[in-house]
Amino acid sequence: MARCARSEVLCEGVIMADGQEDEPTDGGFAEARGGPTVLRILVGAQLRRLREASGITREEAAYAIRGSEAKMSRIESGRVGFKPRDVADLLTMYGVTDGSARDLLLSLAEQANEPGWWHRYSDSMPDWFSTYVGLEQAATIIRCYEAQYVPGLLQTEAYANAVINLGEAVRPDEVSKRVELRMHRQQLLYVPKAPDYWAVIDEAVLRRKLGGPDVMREQLDHILEVSRRTNVTVQVVPFERSDVAAVGGPFTLLRFAEPDLPDIVYLEQLNSALYLNKDVDVMNYLQIMNRLAAGALTPERSTELIQSVRDAL
Q: Pairing with 239, which of 66, 145, 163, 171 sits 20 to 30 Å away (CA)?
């Protein structure tokens, strides 16, 4: 089911951002690294399964909590927080009236309302990107393709500052907060059980001197250093493989350990983003990513190219 981040319109297979009764186990929810974003999705999915197992329509469930069918869709897809009264009423309607299953879901719904660490940056971050940060924090595999800029998780502070200043006019303090958020996101690559991160970048990314030669030299040094980590792979698509690079723009593929979280393709636009989770779309982008990786230089040869560009600055 699609999740439209700030719209009540249901869209099959795309999240547009502007913008049998299984008892949940504590480990399946509470250890979700993405915090409230992932908890909302997991709790919503469990509520949906309970409703379907009870033979209750979404419209009937919505009436029980004094809401619309669109509200129920948002609850079941994890796009909004949970009102304790709504969750309690739904569980009662679904026949979960007592016991550990009810207590756990009520507790997890409450936890899902707690803000993630990125909430402190909400005044300088649009809602559609806040959703992405939560999903990124939960992913076990992150694969991305970039044709213009160094991927955010690999940027230095100076390079990030230069990239952010390329956008719409923003106050210096807002630029600072956006850079700080980007640096905080990068801690994900260094935590225990860090996700596997695989970046395929176009050669133009290396040769575009954003911020000047000194900034770019430091940035390329940083890529070389980070790519030594066992969980990080960087490949470069050289200019002579332009046929491989012609894929229509940057994208990110996210994969999760939780079975209730489907693979997601993230496509960032100027003032919004698309989150694709329909199987056919995900498979299409997975094939594109595999083709990019196969046509790019090997990680070893990519390192040599990065080093040579860096030495020439």
A: 163
